[in-house]
């Protein structure tokens, strides 16, 4: 299902100044540089043909830049998540309104009040879902994904040593799973391969954080060679177009090494749905 990686829209949110005060920020974090890198990220999405909906920063929600965690959008339907960190759940309420108003997409809410799920734990391969069971996502959350998208197999996968599943594995193209040559990544990959309904090629990169990449409209976006030179050599061997993007400052937030995926919600809007 190559069309699964052809997108028409993206939703992003600019960094609030309160991001600087995030309890997990490192002492050398540079907010101005992070904002510049985020602006370049948004420009890259537009260059790849996406209509980008750019939300203003919300000072009351310091993590609002990490929009991926608030919704999972596939086949023109948006599952509104319930993030595992209670302080972030208001972000999902806001995202529901944006998706309905700006894109006119149908939304699905989670009925199980005990279910929690971050979008960073949801990997859609184009054929099936893998949902990371983590400190932020539980089995109830995985069941919510299965219920929202019954046309696709959905497999929960326990993860260790990472905040989200996409810290460890992402999609580097149709049927290509990108993983790193690290213990945590290899362990979750084995679990996925054991439970997978379909077969995939595996692209292994030497650097753990380089495994977080984005495949959009035929182009693979990955972290820069200045950060991960050996992994860049692996990406450059792929047949598709590749593009380096520096988002290292945002990634300095502890545990958030999924900066490429977590800063956007990617959407393929069906032609029959008109924006409101």
What's the gist of this structure?
The active site is at residues 164, 262. This protein is an alpha/beta fold and 276 residues long. The protein is built from six helices and 15 strands.
Question: Any overview of this molecule?
Answer:
This protein starts with 8 loop residues before the first strand and ends in a 9-residue tail after the last strand. It is an alpha/beta fold and 276 residues long. It is 24% helix and 22% strand. The protein has a 3-stranded mixed sheet, covered by helices on one side. The protein has a 3-stranded mixed sheet with strand order 3-4-5, with helices on both faces. The mean pLDDT is 93. It has helices at 31-47, 89-103, 139-148, 183-195, 229-235, 259-262, and strands at residues 9-13, 51-55, 71-74, 77-80, 107-108, 122-124, 129-133, 154-158, 169-173, 176-180, 201-205, 214-216, 219-222, 241-244, 265-267. It contains 6 helices and 15 strands. Belongs to the DDAH family. Keywords: Hydrolase.
């Amino acid at each position: 299902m190559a069309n699964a990686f052809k997108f028409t829209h993206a939703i992003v949110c600019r960094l609030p100044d309160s991001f600087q005060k995030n309890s997990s920020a490192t002492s050398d974090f540079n907010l101005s540089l992070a904002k510049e890198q985020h602006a370049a990220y948004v420009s890259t999405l537009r260059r790849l043909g996406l209509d980008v909906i750019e939300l203003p920063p919300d000072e009351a929600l310091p993590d609002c830049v990490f929009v991926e965690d608030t919704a999972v959008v596939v086949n023109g339907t948006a599952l509104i998540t319930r993030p595992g960190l209670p302080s972030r759940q208001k972000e999902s309420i806001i995202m529901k309104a944006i998706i309905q108003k700006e894109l006119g997409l149908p939304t699905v809410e989670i009925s199980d009040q005990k279910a929690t799920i971050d979008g960073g734990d949801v990997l859609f391969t184009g054929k099936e879902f893998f949902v990371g069971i983590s400190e932020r996502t539980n089995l109830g959350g995985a069941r919510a994904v299965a219920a929202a998208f019954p046309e696709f197999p959905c497999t929960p996968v326990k993860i260790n040593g990472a905040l989200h599943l996409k810290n460890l594995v992402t999609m580097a193209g149709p049927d290509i799973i990108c993983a790193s040559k690290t213990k945590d990544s290899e362990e979750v990959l084995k679990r996925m391969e054991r439970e997978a309904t379909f077969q995939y090629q595996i692209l292994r990169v030497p650097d753990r954080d380089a495994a977080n990449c984005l495949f959009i409209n035929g182009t693979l976006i990955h972290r820069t060679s200045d950060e991960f030179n050996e992994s860049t050599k692996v990406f450059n061997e792929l047949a598709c177009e590749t593009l380096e993007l520096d988002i290292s400052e945002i990634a300095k937030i502890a545990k958030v090494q999924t900066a490429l995926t977590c800063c956007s919600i990617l959407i393929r809007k069906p032609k029959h749905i008109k924006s409101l």
